[in-house]
Description:
Elements: H1 13-19, E1 26-32, E2 51-54, H2 62-65, E3 68-70, E4 95-100, E5 109-111, E6 127-132, H3 162-169, H4 172-188, H5 197-212, H6 231-234, H7 239-248, H8 266-276, E7 284-293, E8 302-303, E9 311-320, E10 325-330, H9 345-356, E11 364-367, H10 374-382, E12 386-390, H11 404-407, E13 415-420, E14 423-429, E15 433-438, E16 446-453, E17 458-465, H12 466-474, H13 477-487, H14 499-519, H15 527-542, H16 554-564, E18 572-574, E19 580-581, E20 588-589, E21 591-593, H17 605-610
Amino acid sequence: MADANHPGKRYTVAEILAMLQDSETVADITVVPESEMHAHDTDCDSDQSDDEATGDHNRLPSRILKGEGFLPNSDMQLPNPPDDDPGCSSSVSQTETRKVSGTNEKVTSQIVGPMLHKTKNQDRKFKKIKIAAKAPAQANKKYQIPRYVPKEHDPGFTSDDPVDIFLAFYPKSLRDVTLEMSNLYAEQKGKTLNLTEDELLTFYGILLISGYNTVPRRRLLWSDDCDVSNNAVKDAMRRNRFDEIMSSVHLVDNMKITADPFFKVRPLFKHLNDINNAIPIAEHVAVDEMMIEYFGRHGCKQFIRGKPIRFGYKIWSLASSSGFVHQMEPYVGSHTHLVETGLGQGPSVVLGLAEKAEVPPGVKFYHDNLFTTLSLVDEMTLRGYGSCGTMRQTQLHNVPFTAPQTFKKTPRGDAEYLVEAEKLIVRWNDNSVVTVVSNMEREFTETEAKRWNKQKRTMDKVRQPKCIQDYNTHMGGVDLHDQFVSRYRVNIRSKKWWWPCFSWALNSAMVNSWCYYRSWKSGEKDLLSFQRLVAQTLLLRHGTKPSRQGRRSSMAVAITDATRFDNLNHWPCNTGSRYKRCKNCGGRTSFACGKCDVPLHVECFKKYHTE
């Protein structure tokens, strides 16, 4: 629009601020946002009241700086604009949007222009801003993410023994709390538990064995039946003693209940996070959610459609690309122990996990569209972190990209991108339309990716943006940890709501110790071999073999009786060994039934097999 000072000239808010940079006068500037800068040419009017705002002009959003502005009822004279200024709108930060074809035969580039998308029949909206007229801050074109400097390796992790590594990641402080609170809980119920550390470690070993040697009921592990019995478990702890420990195991004092819905398992996450933070954080980390399977009733139970585990407790997690989790925090609504940044739940999770894990500058974060917003990327840039993530269409605001429904019709591999300040925003057509924002690249670059062609039934090469390739490479750390945990998850269950968290923490510590063993100790064992070695060693080192054998199961008795009365091939034979007690009369005899392998007198043979 034209003003009285320079008829025929149009000015953006950024240009007016630049012209008034030497003035100390406080002025009222009326702003027409860029998406509606031509609304004054129509007869439409706004049905909303004008908004007024005051503050530092350096923090104005780009949609305000790019909008047209004028000084209503002001005697202030604007200086003449530069001669080379054509009078058209320009952006305070260099913003460029391009469309790129994804075919290999011909790659074309077409400049669309800075924010040229227009909409018709929009309501007229003005925004009044009262600010000091000074020059706006220019975008830093040479900004780079600080160089990643890894933390020195903790000398406390020096052992190469898998059992010692596991006990380091399931620390002694947590085991001591479990011992103290379990004995206290038994006393509160009027029982005497007297749980020792050896028994607790044996208890952990039996739980780990149930992850890869599953039976329908846990008591079958102590059965004498050859098809389900487990001699390692039977020789380490009595069944009744295991039941006593499982009914009394606890992590907190029930007499000190708090409003936190997860107060019963808070020590688990606290102690595990403390020990995980001692490991140097990798250069590339991912933020995502994990699920602890649970089908009972609890206020914090979540449902996530499309996940391998749809029902359960949600855990916000920060993990490296190898699957090692550095920080985890259960989602419990307002009681979630993460800082509130005011940027929304997703950005607060990313920034909160980074603060709790004490992530050093230079680390590059990858996150999906649940967390990614443009404000998050700006905040990560200010903190010296790299940030790359997929975005939802609702978070793009005024970014002039082609609508997803229209862009989906373009050839596979086509891309369009926008460079603004420290951000690169890319939209790419793959199986579906993907939008990614990153602050780690200043220029749009492409690589090649292979995709299956249904018509030709061959693998085709398509162009893929480099930022999307990096995202696919480093994003799967949390899902990888979740996958490892689910492979050999503890199969012994309980009706207590917190038991899934307790058993999951044991598996998570196992996976973290295995990732550490594989990455830092160059171990070659797979996860199953590693878990079997740890479980068996715990039983052998800390288990106590029972002094006498228990009773035979009812199943064993039923099988013996079915064979005893079948009247087939039962013959007395002389064993040639020392005398044994007859099964029928109790007298001494050297004869036995060759089929039943039962000592019997010849006189008692018929009576035993018929009565």
